[in-house]
Amino acid sequence: MSTEPRAFEGINVLDFTQGVAGPHSTMLLAQHGANVLKIEPPDGDWGRTLGAMYGDQCAHSIAFNRGKRSLAMDMKHPDAQAAARKIAEKADIIVEAFRPGIMAKFGLSYDMVKEFNPDVIYLSVTGFGQKGPNMNLPVTDAVIQAYSGLMTVNKDGQGLPNRLNMIPIDVTTGLYAFQALSTALMRKFRFGGGCYVDNNLLQSAMAFQ
Question: What is the pTM of this model?
Fold first, then answer.
């Protein structure tokens, strides 16, 4: 086992993501040494149920959350919001995957956080981004496969598009998020200052194609 320091040792990450896309990005940060604290609702990240259960987790949940610590909090409760703010004050990176506007209800939107942590790097994972007519629509990997046209590369014998029987958009979105966070950290180390990153499944699907 290598004794060399990992690239992101000493970097504090506050992870509000669930499912696959967001958790994939923060898992990669953890694998490179970051201290990742994942905030889950009291009944757990819904990504724990994506497949056959092994205790209280599935294989996807284990794979995309390894290396993290987890804390269960009801973010609708003022005490939980206050506790999360204290953690956010020392976070180098915050990653969230709620619908646009939800983090503001918790007092933890990017604009709110940068008031007390101006150098924070803040990334949001959504389906269609922070603006536009589809911004609040529920999204799954399959929905974006169809919407982006990716299904056309997987036609059946009659020429009809079909879903790829995996989660390529979720996984790719997580990879793009990790790339964006890594370059944002490099910029912060060299020049100072944080930033906001809008990371969404549709952008990732289009870039992937």
Answer: 0.93
